[in-house]
């Protein structure tokens, strides 16, 4: 197996307990992991391979067919005195006698191993390794209770048994060979890191790399649930597809961890999005739950990484895994303006400009008991816990491949210069952090920093009449009812309570130190394409901290994920200013027929609406603007440094020159000045001389060609000494066009329109009589 580039799999020991694979067919005991099963098998193989050659022949004879003359159907030598079960450790090893007869066919041991007389030690050791794998799989077949898994074990048992008889290498016979899906999970995660985090400073990006390695390692050592377990948990799932992937995983990833005579592959390198989708939700919930239970056992150096950063990383990845439009699963994934496929290793190197991160809200974590079960062959991993569990917006993101492939426009800033500037503005030593009290800091900057530090959390919650009440959610709903009642004194408390606890309404809650300090209550109308915002409030002692703006930004992200792009709300005179700052206006984009009869009408309030742009990551929008300003600032500084050159004054006016072209002023072009473009929309066919390749035979028909570029050059060289010369060349452009092109052509029409425009301007200037 080739080493994977980019995000490499690290040690399976993560957190306190780490994660170790379970031996196939083993029970869920502490010693059934890799350290137990694999180590014991490896020790047995080493011991057997160090045995004398006769002992090796005896072992191989058990799995070798009889070669004696005559028709003998014995497929393995059987000792007359089989060893006791279990074997006695103090029993002395008897000398091997090649003349000892077989208990089954009466032929000698030597008759069963004649084909091994001239075999090298290396080949014999290889065959002995297969023998021990066969014995191990035989035990697995008898211990395994799941029918699908037992069938796979038995098939592999027969395959290895056949390899010994034929002295060949085990080759799995399958319709498809690895990899089974492209891009692989590993490639997809690398694309995800590049797509979402390449804008971060190097230190933060390194943290993301560690999280990605941790996640890939979890997948490689994760024990898939059996098809029967999955059918019970997800009855409507694609059972046949999951069973196929489960079988492949057993054959290529799980069993080869212990039976090393079979070729082994990493799960993340041969499987793709399909398998990841089938395990991600269960895996994420179980890891978070165990981390909550064992957080006190985590090493101090990994506590923040696992308990704070990893949950958000998983939440963002979860959205890309289940989104139908995420670009990270495209085989042509691009993340650079120059185009070209990104190899995995570029995640490590300095990245180009890319989309920033964003993390939205979601419902509170559910009871892990509803997440399904894992195979009893392993113990769940101990990894991480979230202080804000959530799903996030769908990736209908604007970084489409078509944009990356678009042709560069004249005047675009070179990408190498952009990358150089980006390296400067992301260097913490090169640019000071904006003070939260600065006039230039964004309204939500303080709230965003508090969320990153885990001081505040955002959760979309609601009451349910179908599920068992969650005590924490009910407590938060009561807290929201209190906040809304206190901050909206003119609203009846009974009305607030009814809507907050109404199952059709949801509330984006703002949690600080375990208590509710604000929220936005809303009702979604997916069929009508809008959401009604009912209540919006932050408790008085927590205002003027940017919470309201950040709360609304999270709500926008949540709705973009659910593909609802319009908000409607009735705002009183005290709330109009807030909603205007959040992008609301009185210009309602939703057709009136869509919302009349759906939303609640309030007397004395103003109906306001907000149309969401799915291309904008609202929770990080101010960060993007800040970085764009820094880029422009740095580019201006560089340009100023280049043009700080003093040119001699203009002396031509002393010689009687009344005027000169602007572009002839020394240094004017170095400042970035460009001559005004010829702006008439119908002038485009006449800007440059006609090319022979575009109009064959043109110069045989038109003897005196003319174009605007030639006229400009003549104007600079003072060719036009009279007005008539200038007008004659201009008229020639129109005449030539009408002579060569048919009247119904676009060129003919452009000539007529531009000619009319030209003579209108000439008359306005008084150059000809009107």
TrEMBL record:
<dbReference type="Pfam" id="PF00439">
    <property type="entry name" value="Bromodomain"/>
</dbReference>
<feature type="compositionally biased region" description="Basic residues">
    <location>
        <begin position="42"/>
        <end position="54"/>
    </location>
</feature>
<keyword id="KW-0012">Acyltransferase</keyword>
<dbReference type="InterPro" id="IPR036427">
    <property type="entry name" value="Bromodomain-like_sf"/>
</dbReference>
<keyword id="KW-0804">Transcription</keyword>
<dbReference type="InterPro" id="IPR001487">
    <property type="entry name" value="Bromodomain"/>
</dbReference>
<dbReference type="GO" id="GO:0045944">
    <property type="term" value="P:positive regulation of transcription by RNA polymerase II"/>
</dbReference>
<feature type="binding site">
    <location>
        <begin position="574"/>
        <end position="577"/>
    </location>
    <ligand>
        <name>acetyl-CoA</name>
    </ligand>
</feature>
<feature type="domain" description="N-acetyltransferase">
    <location>
        <begin position="465"/>
        <end position="613"/>
    </location>
</feature>
<dbReference type="GO" id="GO:0140672">
    <property type="term" value="C:ATAC complex"/>
</dbReference>
<dbReference type="InterPro" id="IPR018359">
    <property type="entry name" value="Bromodomain_CS"/>
</dbReference>
<feature type="compositionally biased region" description="Gly residues">
    <location>
        <begin position="25"/>
        <end position="36"/>
    </location>
</feature>
<dbReference type="GO" id="GO:0005634">
    <property type="term" value="C:nucleus"/>
</dbReference>
<feature type="compositionally biased region" description="Polar residues">
    <location>
        <begin position="1"/>
        <end position="11"/>
    </location>
</feature>
<dbReference type="InterPro" id="IPR000182">
    <property type="entry name" value="GNAT_dom"/>
</dbReference>
<feature type="binding site">
    <location>
        <begin position="536"/>
        <end position="538"/>
    </location>
    <ligand>
        <name>acetyl-CoA</name>
    </ligand>
</feature>
<dbReference type="InterPro" id="IPR016181">
    <property type="entry name" value="Acyl_CoA_acyltransferase"/>
</dbReference>
<dbReference type="Pfam" id="PF00583">
    <property type="entry name" value="Acetyltransf_1"/>
</dbReference>
<feature type="region of interest" description="Disordered">
    <location>
        <begin position="1"/>
        <end position="54"/>
    </location>
</feature>
<feature type="domain" description="Bromo">
    <location>
        <begin position="678"/>
        <end position="748"/>
    </location>
</feature>
<dbReference type="GO" id="GO:0005813">
    <property type="term" value="C:centrosome"/>
</dbReference>
<dbReference type="GO" id="GO:0043992">
    <property type="term" value="F:histone H3K9 acetyltransferase activity"/>
</dbReference>
<feature type="region of interest" description="Disordered">
    <location>
        <begin position="369"/>
        <end position="404"/>
    </location>
</feature>
<keyword id="KW-0963">Cytoplasm</keyword>
<keyword id="KW-0206">Cytoskeleton</keyword>
<keyword id="KW-0808">Transferase</keyword>
<dbReference type="InterPro" id="IPR016376">
    <property type="entry name" value="GCN5/PCAF"/>
</dbReference>
<keyword id="KW-0539">Nucleus</keyword>
<keyword id="KW-0805">Transcription regulation</keyword>
<feature type="active site" description="Proton donor/acceptor">
    <location>
        <position position="532"/>
    </location>
</feature>
<feature type="compositionally biased region" description="Basic and acidic residues">
    <location>
        <begin position="390"/>
        <end position="404"/>
    </location>
</feature>
<dbReference type="InterPro" id="IPR009464">
    <property type="entry name" value="PCAF_N"/>
</dbReference>
<protein>
    <recommendedName>
        <fullName>Histone acetyltransferase</fullName>
        <ecNumber>2.3.1.48</ecNumber>
    </recommendedName>
</protein>
<feature type="binding site">
    <location>
        <begin position="543"/>
        <end position="549"/>
    </location>
    <ligand>
        <name>acetyl-CoA</name>
    </ligand>
</feature>
<dbReference type="InterPro" id="IPR037800">
    <property type="entry name" value="GCN5"/>
</dbReference>
<keyword id="KW-0103">Bromodomain</keyword>
<comment type="similarity">
    <text>Belongs to the acetyltransferase family. GCN5 subfamily.</text>
</comment>
<dbReference type="Pfam" id="PF06466">
    <property type="entry name" value="PCAF_N"/>
</dbReference>
<feature type="compositionally biased region" description="Low complexity">
    <location>
        <begin position="12"/>
        <end position="24"/>
    </location>
</feature>
């Amino acid at each position: 197996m080739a080493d994977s580039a980019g995000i490499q799999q690290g040690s399976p020991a993560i957190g306190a307990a780490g994660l170790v694979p379970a031996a196939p067919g083993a029970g869920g005991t502490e010693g059934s992991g890799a350290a137990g099963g694999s180590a014991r098998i490896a020790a047995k193989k080493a011991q057997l391979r160090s045995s004398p050659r006769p002992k090796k022949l005896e072992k191989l004879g058990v799995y070798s067919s009889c070669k004696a003359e005559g028709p003998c159907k014995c497929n393995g030598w059987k000792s007359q005195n089989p060893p006791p079960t279990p074997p006695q450790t103090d029993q002395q090893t008897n000398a091997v006698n090649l003349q000892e007869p077989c208990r089954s066919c009466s032929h000698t041991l030597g008759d069963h191993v004649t084909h091994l007389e001239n075999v090298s030690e290396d080949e014999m050791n290889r065959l002995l390794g297969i023998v021990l794998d066969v014995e191990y799989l035989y035990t697995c077949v008898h211990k395994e209770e799941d029918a699908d898994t037992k069938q796979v074990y038995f098939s592999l048992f027969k395959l290895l048994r056949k390899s010994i008889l034929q002295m060949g290498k085990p080759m799995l016979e399958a319709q498809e060979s690895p990899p089974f899906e492209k891009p692989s999970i590993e490639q997809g995660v690398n694309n995800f890191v590049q797509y979402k985090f390449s804008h971060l400073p190097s230190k933060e990006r390194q943290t993301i790399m560690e999280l990605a390695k941790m996640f890939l390692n979890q997948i490689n050592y994760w024990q898939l649930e059996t098809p029967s377990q999955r059918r019970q948990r997800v009855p409507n799932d694609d059972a046949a597809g999951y069973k196929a992937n489960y079988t492949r995983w057993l054959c290529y990833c799980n069993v080869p961890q212990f039976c090393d005579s079979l070729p082994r592959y990493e799960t993340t390198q041969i499987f793709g999005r399909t398998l990841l989708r089938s395990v991600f939700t269960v895996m994420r919930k179980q890891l978070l739950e165990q981390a909550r239970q064992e957080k006190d056992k985590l090493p101090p150096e990994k506590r923040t990484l696992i308990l704070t950063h990893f949950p958000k990383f998983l939440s963002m990845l979860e959205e890309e895994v289940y989104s139908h439009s995420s670009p990270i699963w495209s085989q042509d994934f691009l993340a650079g303006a120059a185009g070209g496929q990104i190899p995995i290793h570029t995640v490590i190197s300095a990245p180009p400009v890319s989309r920033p991160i964003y993390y939205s809200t979601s419902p509170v974590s559910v009871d892990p008991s509803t997440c399904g079960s894992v195979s009893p062959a392993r113990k769940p991993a101990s990894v991480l816990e979230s202080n804000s569990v959530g799903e996030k917006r769908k990736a209908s993101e604007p970084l489409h491949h078509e944009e990356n492939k678009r042709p560069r426009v004249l005047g675009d800033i070179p990408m190498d210069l952009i990358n150089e500037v980006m390296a400067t503005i992301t260097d913490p030593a090169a640019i000071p952090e904006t003070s939260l009290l600065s006039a230039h800091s964004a309204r939500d900057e303080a709230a965003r920093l508090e969320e990153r530090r885990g001081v505040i959390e955002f959760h979309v919650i609601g009451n349910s009449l179908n599920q068992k009440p969650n005590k924490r959610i009910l407590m938060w709903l009561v807290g929201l009812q209190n906040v809304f009642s206190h901050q909206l004194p003119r609203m009846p408390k009974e009305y607030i309570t009814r809507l907050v606890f109404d199952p059709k309404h949801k509330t984006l809650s703002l949690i600080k130190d375990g208590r509710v300090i604000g929220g936005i209550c809303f009702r979604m109308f997916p069929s009508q394409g809008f959401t009604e915002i009912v209540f919006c409030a932050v408790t008085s002692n927590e205002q003027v901290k940017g919470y309201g703006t950040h709360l609304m930004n999270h709500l926008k992200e949540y709705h973009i994920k659910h593909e609802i792009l319009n908000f409607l709300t009735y705002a009183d005179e005290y709330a109009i200013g807030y909603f205007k700052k959040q992008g609301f206006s009185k210009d309602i984009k939703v057709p009136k027929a869509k919302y009349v009869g759906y939303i609640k009408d309030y007397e004395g309030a103003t109906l306001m609406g907000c149309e969401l742009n799915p291309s904008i990551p609202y929770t990080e929008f101010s960060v993007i603007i800040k970085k764009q300003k820094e880029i422009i600032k740095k580019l201006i500084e560089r340009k100023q440094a280049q043009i700080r050159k003093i040119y001699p004054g203009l002396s031509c006016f002393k010689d009687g020159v009344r005027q000169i072209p602007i572009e002839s002023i020394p240094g004017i072009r170095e400042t970035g000045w460009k001559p005004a473009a010829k702006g008439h929309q119908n002038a485009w066919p006449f800007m440059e001389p006609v090319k022979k390749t575009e109009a064959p035979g043109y110069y045989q028909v038109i003897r005196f060609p003319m174009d605007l570029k030639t006229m400009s050059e003549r104007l600079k060289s003072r060719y036009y000494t009279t007005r008539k010369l200038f007008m004659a060349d201009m008229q020639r452009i129109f005449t030539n066009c009408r002579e060569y092109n048919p009247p119904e052509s676009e060129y003919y029409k452009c000539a007529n329109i531009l000619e009319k425009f030209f003579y209108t301007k000439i008359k306005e200037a008084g150059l000809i009589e009107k």
